[in-house]
Specification:
- There is one protein chain.
- With 604 residues, the protein is mainly β.
- 3% of the residues lie in helices and 44% in strands.
- The strands form eleven sheets. Strands 1-24-23-22 form a four-stranded antiparallel β-sheet, with no helix packed on it. The chain has a four-stranded antiparallel β-sheet with strand order 2-3-4-5, with no helix packed on it. Strands 6-7-8-9 form a four-stranded antiparallel β-sheet, with no helix packed on it.
- A hairpin with a 4-residue loop joins strand 11 and strand 12.
- The longest helix is centred in the N-terminal third of the chain and has 5 residues.
- The radius of gyration is 28 Å and the shape is elongated.
């Protein structure tokens, strides 16, 4: 196992700080819209942030790429501080705003029309909100309870409110319950700005007893919060902190790893761009965290001159700073893990979902399944401990019979390309054989890819794909189909080899012998391949993986080995994909490579 290359963290003097001019209107809340929604606002293709006006109640829209801005919602300007606007969220196709000093919540359509204006009747300062199921929970910084609305009802204009009690913390004269985020399926995290603590609230506990997760006063001045869940289901909490917390508070963003009721401090993110950061939001790619500088302390709050915007000369900003990433580690550090597979030659690899792998009796670490090329068995390996066991004993009929090549976990079953046997086999997670499907073509059945309810198999010596219906095969029905493939040259070496799904109805297929990667549109029944990576750029191409980032960008990894002959190199080629274009990023090499065949990425 080798570390996937990551960019080195950039210094603040480089490009890790973006500053946006918000004019002379004090901001409070920030929300980054989904890309498709933001594009409807007429500010171009970049990600769009909505920013609330604390003392005027309007909402600004800002393009985070170009910096261009416009009014999403003009301030009603009834009088200074009425209306007010604090936290803001996009949910169920609507914009939800916590009404700050107005003591209400307002709901707007994406065109800015008011859907509902819900007065909570408690005064105070309605600060932030979090959605769990069809209920939205609002904090009021001077009330020791949460106010609730039914989401569906509010979207229909019904403002009937509810109350969820909160106890187990000390109310002060400063801002108390402030930032709030959903945590898991039925819990919330809530912070207290005045006390500098973060609490968990189990919504099944109707007494509303808070449990302290980050102890006071560790996050003094706590304001907006965001939780980000990684691909391997680990939660990371970001907490904006500002000088409004008083003595001992610092303008920063605290970062904590969460595990159940335990929060572990990672680091405190500071920037010369911070000036009392209030609320925060992360972009879809998880690269930048954005905050609005409310200047609660560096200016009077409110400033006596703030009520007349024609003469008020102060400025406010929004800042985006890079989310800290670990520096890439050298191979002499811990970026290479080597596992002993004994004296049986491997071919295919698949990393099981965590919950499935845990059923195999090898502990809690991620579990990889590895096929035996010439014996047909399958080994299971714990990628944390290195412990291994037989998932499937080799039938040992004779050397090379059965054979096993590519392997995938799909629809609760293990699917194996039968290599020299010219078949495919399907096993339950307990190793029982569900189906053994002979394709009747000989050759070498190499790899497979699933699109909908069809699985497509490559045969490295046949110029077509063999198909099975997934549901039928899981019921033991081995009726096969054929999908033609043309537009490449067959050789005496391994031809059609690695295969992966690409988009909703296309495949990427490589040729080991030619060193090319092709796209295949399944709507084109002629099977004409289109060259995406030109021959012989990936000579010796074998297994492939595509990873899609949070911002829907695809990256292709292609194993390459010396079987490609002269000019081939043991490596993993990395390419960024955009439609029919593949752009080379880098070639990953390691002293641990010795003709790498197939590849798999861990969940993280």
């Amino acid at each position: 196992g080798v570390m996937v290359p990551q960019p080195a963290p950039k210094s603040e003097t480089d490009v890790d700080k973006k500053v946006y001019d918000l004019g002379n209107v004090r901001p409070e809340g920030i929300e980054i819209l989904p890309q498709t929604v933001g594009q409807t606002l007429g500010l171009g293709d970049g990600a769009i942030a909505l920013v609330t006006q604390l003392y005027w109640g309007g909402i600004d829209a800002v393009n985070l790429v170009t910096g261009e801005s416009k009014k999403f919602l003009e301030s009603p300007k009834a009088d200074f501080g009425n209306p007010s606007a604090a936290g803001i969220k996009f949910h169920n196709g609507a914009i939800w705003v916590a009404g700050g000093m107005d003591g209400d919540a307002r709901v707007y359509g994406i065109d800015g029309t008011e859907i509902a204006k819900c007065d909570f009747g408690l005064g105070g300062f309605v600060n932030d909100m979090a959605f769990i199921g069809d209920i939205v929970y609002f904090t009021n910084s001077f009330v020791s309870s949460l106010t609730t609305l039914n989401v569906s009802a509010a979207l229909a204009g019904n403002c009937e409110t509810g109350t969820f009690p909160v106890q187990g913390f000390e109310m002060t004269n400063n801002f108390n319950l402030n930032g709030i985020v959903p945590y898991g399926s039925n819990s919330l995290l809530i912070n207290s700005l005045a006390l500098g603590a973060v609490y968990s609230l189990d919504l099944d506990d109707t007494t509303g007893l808070l449990k302290e997760m980050i102890s006071a006063p560790d996050v003094l001045g706590a304001d907006g919060m965001v939780i980000v869940t990684s691909d391997d289901n680990k939660d990371r909490l970001y907490v904006a902190q500002n000088l409004l917390g008083g003595e001992g508070s610092v303008d920063s963003i605290g970062i904590y790893d969460l595990d159940g009721e335990v929060a572990t401090f990672v680091e405190s993110l500071t920037s010369s761009g911070f000036d009392q950061p209030a609320t925060i939001a992360l972009d879809d790619a998880g690269e930048y965290i954005y905050t609005v500088n409310a200047r609660f302390v560096s200016l009077p709050n409110p400033d006596p001159a703030e009520g007349d915007l024609t003469t008020f000369g102060e400025k406010f900003t929004m800042v985006g700073v890079m989310v800290p990433q670990p520096a890439p580690k050298s191979e002499t550090d811990v970026d290479k893990k080597v596992y002993d597979l004994g004296n049986v030659r491997p071919e295919g690899i698949e990393i099981l979902p965590q919950t499935v792998g845990q059923t195999l009796g090898l502990g809690d670490g991620a579990i990889a399944l590895v096929t035996q090329l010439y014996w047909g068995g399958i080994d299971a390996v714990n990628l944390v401990t290195g412990e291994s066991k037989k998932f499937l004993e080799s039938p040992k009929a004779d050397f090379g019979n059965p054979s096993a090549a590519g392997i995938k976990f799909h629809n609760g079953a293990i699917w194996v390309a039968g290599g020299m046997d010219g078949d495919a086999r399907v096993y339950g997670i307990d190793g029982t054989e569900i189906a053994k499907c002979d394709f009747g073509l000989g050759g070498f059945v190499n790899d497979m890819a699933f699109i909908g309810d069809i699985v497509y198999f490559t045969n490295s010596f046949v110029s077509s794909l063999t198909t099975l219906n997934v549901s039928a095969a899981l019921a033991g029905n081995c009726e096969t189909g054929t999908f033609p493939v043309q537009g490449f040259e067959m050789t005496n070496n391994f031809n059609l080899n690695g295969i992966v799904p690409y988009g909703s109805n296309s495949l990427l297929i490589n040729s080991l012998a030619l060193g090319a990667v092709y796209s295949l549109d399944l709507d084109d029944t002629t099977g004409l391949l289109k060259e995406m990576i030109s021959a012989p750029d990936v000579l010796g191409a074998d297994g492939m993986v595509i990873v899609t980032s949070d911002d829907n960008k695809d990256r292709l990894y292609v194993a390459q080995n010396l079987l490609g002959g002269e000019g081939s190199v043991d490596s993993i080629g990395i390419y960024d994909l955009d439609g029919e274009v593949a752009t080379f990023v880098e070639s990953l090499t390691s002293s641990g490579f010795d003709q790498p065949a197939t590849i798999a990425l861990d969940d993280a």
